[in-house]
Amino acid sequence: MNIVTVKINGIEYNLKGDEREEYLHKVAGYVDKKVKNILENNRKLSTSSAAILSAVNVVDDMFKKQKEYEEFIGKLNQMEKVQNSYVEQMEALKKQLNHMEQYNAELQLKLKNNSSNQQVEQLQQSVKKLTEELKITQETAQRHMKENSVLKSENKEFKFQLQSAKYKIIDLQHKLVENQINLAKEKKQKHPFLNDSTK
């Protein structure tokens, strides 16, 4: 497990995780940027309030990424169905082409015994047409396979972003608890008579 010391809004925190140090620094940098952005826009906010608003923003980002990821998975599933359909069509055309080639070979053999040139010509045209159709289907299937590969790559990136958002929320939760403790300490220091009255 890695332990990394990071700064968020000028305060040092120790982050623990199985992820690499670069990743933990990246998470902390994201949280730091969110907190500072909120404090710059409203300087009257306390650190704990800024942490809560930052957590809200991060959760909002995570939900949006989750929605994008789900939409992407839907598109990916649809592309896989289309791809499977093209593969089935290709297999059917290959079988049909093999059948036509066998039939053509039989006719060529018969041609040696009789002069049925017209039948052979028709068969050759049919084979040529089927070959062209097979070629078009193969090109289309290859294009869809390439698009599917791109979608899978994007899916991997969405998963990474979703995982990052989850770690950011966990970090903000820790920061919120620490800020609430610090806030309570500050209140006790500012109002020591509250401590005396409870004795």
UniProtKB/TrEMBL annotation:
It is found in: Cytoplasm. InterPro entries: Bac_CellDiv_Activator, Cell_div_ZapA-like, Cell_div_ZapA-like_sf. The keyword NADP does not apply. Keywords: Cell cycle, Cell division, Coiled coil, Cytoplasm, Septation. GO terms for biological process: division septum assembly; FtsZ-dependent cytokinesis; septin ring assembly. Its main location: cytoplasm. The keyword Cell division applies. It comes from the Bacteria. Residues 76-147 form a coiled coil. GO terms for cellular component: cell division site; cell septum; cytosol. Pfam families: ZapA. PANTHER family: CELL DIVISION PROTEIN ZAPA (PTHR34981). Activator of cell division through the inhibition of FtsZ GTPase activity, therefore promoting FtsZ assembly into bundles of protofilaments necessary for the formation of the division Z ring. It is recruited early at mid-cell but it is not essential for cell division. Homodimer. Interacts with FtsZ. This is Cell division protein ZapA. It comes from Clostridium aciditolerans.
